[in-house]
Amino acid sequence: LVEQAEAMAPADGGRAAEVLAQLKAKCEAGREWTERLAGELERRPTLRDAQAMLTEAEGCGVVINEIVAIKEALGRARVWQEAARKLQARSSTRGTVEKATLDELTTLLSQGEALEVVCPDIPYLAQSLRAAEEWQRRAEAALDAQPHAVAGGSSGEEKAVKALEDLHVQGDAVTVMVPVGRTLRLRLWRRRASYALSLARAAKEKESAAKNATGLRELQKLKEEGTALGLEGDGDDDGGDGGGGDGGGDGAAAPAAEAPA
Fold first, then answer.
1. For the chain, which end, N or C, has fewer CB atoms within 10 Å of the first or last residue's CB respectively?
2. Are 222 and 196 in contact, with CB atoms under 8 Å apart?
């Protein structure tokens, strides 16, 4: 068009010269925006900055490839942002059934970090991933450190239960479901069962009716918790969380106990 306008300028006088000047200005604006948008996309602008640049670039009145590219990048970023907010909404629910899994979080964060623009929810997901991985490391270390039989009698069992209970409470604050979580819950249930049994045996030996009644109530509570965890039969292991437990090998059933007199 510029070449045609230049050819028409001598014959058409001022009108052609005016059109030629406008076309040259648009071409120059298009070149400038082409360079600017290409450079900004290489530097990964934020979602807000990318939208602002697109709005400004569209005002130049020239359609260039980089405008199309940034529109497509923004479209992909908005789709990811929506997925990230849905995942965070699942993670904010109580209990573990509705929580997103650690694998889902890891995959979504990786996809977000590969986008051409930086989405605002990326730092939140990255922080959630770090917290989940850190808790997983501590949970695995605690399970590896605790033998299946704790020395020290009831005092040793009480300390083992307290350590696992504290870790379990901390795990509830993790926003995603971590595979080792089920193994930890099962180990905690066994520790509580073992501790309750040791108290029941001690009460029987001392012939304390009050302690016997307390021990029976605790054992009944543990039985109900075991049922809720799906521990119906003997010999089930705790690696069946579907997410790759730590293979701790705890037997699911509580140890056999003498019924307190």
1. C
2. yes
User: For 78-110, what is each residue's pLDDT tens digit?
Assistant: 999 999 999 988 876 555 457 889 999 999 999
Listed residue (87, 123, 134, 131) closest to 107, CA to CA: 87
Selection from 159, 183, 160 nearest residue 171 by Cα: 183
Given a contact cutoff of 8 angstroms between Cβ atoms, the answer to whether 97 and 70 are in contact is no
User: Which stretches within 122-179 are classed as H helix?
Assistant: 122-145, 153-172
Q: Which of 219, 181, 182 minimizes the C-alpha distance to 200?
A: 219
Both tokens of 141, joined, read 């270390």
* C-alpha distances out from residue 174 to 51, 95, 144, Å: 33, 11, 21
pTM of the full structure: 0.64
List pLDDT tens digits, range 43-76: 889 999 989 888 888 777 777 788 888 889 999 9
Sequence letter at residue 252: A
